[in-house]
Amino acid sequence: MELLGGLSVETFLSEYWQKKPLLVRQAVPGFAGLVSAEGMNELACRDDAISRLVKVEQGAWQLEQGPFDGRRLKKLQKGEWSLLVSNLNHFMPEAAELFYRFSFIPYARLDDLMVSYAPQGGTVGPHFDSYDVFLLQAGGRKRWQVSAQQDNTLIEGAPLKILQHFTPEQEWVLEPGDMLYLPPRYAHNGVALEPGMTYSIGFRAPSAQELATQFLAFLQDQLELDGMYADPDLQTQKQPALLGEAMVDRVEAMLSGIRWGRGDIKAFLGHYLSEPKAHVLFDPPEDELSVKQFAKRVASDGVVLDLKTQMLHCDDQFFCNGESVTATDDEAALLAELANARHLTARMVQGPLLDLMYEWFEYGYLHLGTDPLPAG
Ligand code: SIN
Ligand code: CO
Fold first, then answer.
1. Model confidence pLDDT, tens digit, residues 152-176
2. How far apart are CA 291 and CA 177, in angstroms?
3. Cβ neighbours of residue 280 under 8 Å, at least 6 residues apart?
4. Cα dihedral 124, 126, 127, 132 sign
5. Comparing 77 with 326, which gets the higher pLDDT?
6. Coil, helix or strand for 273?
7. Please, are residues 212 and 154 in contact by the beta-carbon 8 Å criterion?
8. Region 183-189: what's the mean pLDDT?
């Protein structure tokens, strides 16, 4: 596979993924990037994009969150700073195309394509990420130093996580098109040798605590327990303030009605992993279409998922942006194609599936034709 420098996905997964770094020279030959520095500035001014500016001033780390004022960004010139914009794949079809070239890792694990711009000397400092990352270089060269060090002590009081003691073990200068894979918690430090950009393909790995919290919230929404506390056999007790054993027994029996199975875990994962992040909003279509008109257009133009849509499936359940539907066998084949390929070529769609797609069209989850951006 070109992206992995000729390494097979199987070898990458068994030998490198979550295990050790991999440097791929010319993963994307001569990669020139997808967005100019001005384009990045424009994105960093949008309130639907997550952007950050990292600076070092007189040895002190500073972090500012976007959206930024364009004039201010233009004034930034020399110096140690980096501008970062997350989810480029939500804004540019070309970025989504690059992002989904990494779909040898399941969509449920793919998180975001972030881009950073740094002038010469720009850096976000030595740090580790909790997630796997592919760092693809565009534009000027960048020197990456990495370390398997166990000392994760951070600089106290810094507004972002910077390692206090970074002991580089290996270093490479990445040219445009070169890519470095790092497993989670692998210390790294990138310094721009020339003005340039780094495209980071990041992954999602929720903590056990986060999964448990979210699962319990999901379960709470599903739960329907009958009955009320009752004690027709109440006995006298000397201490009225005492929570009696009989009461604890009764409540224990009532709560034992809280149960979950594999089906609940599947449904939870589908909802949780397809739920849009808080800043993600969808735009309804500009042109109003009746269901009939929509059906005709689907049959001639097909449909494509919006860049921000996350669609996953499991058994006969299909999850789209935090919502779910149960599909019949016929519907499942079409929906699975839509979920995996992220588009459906011209197709007659009828019945409940047509209603569902029309609903998703009206929400802005999908569009007619092949352009995964809302019209206008
Ligand atoms: C960068 O693009 O310079 C930082 C990306 C990272 O370290 O994860
Ligand atoms: Co990092």
1. 999 999 999 999 999 999 999 999 9
2. 46
3. 48, 90, 308
4. positive
5. 326
6. helix
7. no
8. 98
Q: Identify which ligand lies nearest to the alpha carbon of 174.
A: 1
Q: How many CB atoms lie within 10 A of CB 120?
A: 15
- pLDDT mean over 218-222: 95
CA of 14 to the centre of ligand 2 (A): 22
Share of the chain above pLDDT 90, in %: 94
Three-class secondary structure of residue 340 per DSSP = helix
Choosing from 55, 80, 115, 124 the residue with most ligand 1 atoms within 8 A of its CB, the one to mutate for a pocket test is: 124
pLDDT, the chain, mean: 96
DSSP state of 315: T
> What's the CA gap between 348 and 369, in Å, rounded?
14
* Predicted confidence (pLDDT) at residue 1 exceeds the cutoff of 70: no
pLDDT at 132 over 80: yes
Distance of CA 41 to the CA centre of its chain: 22
Which residue type does 121 have? G
Distance CA 83, CA 44 (A): 8
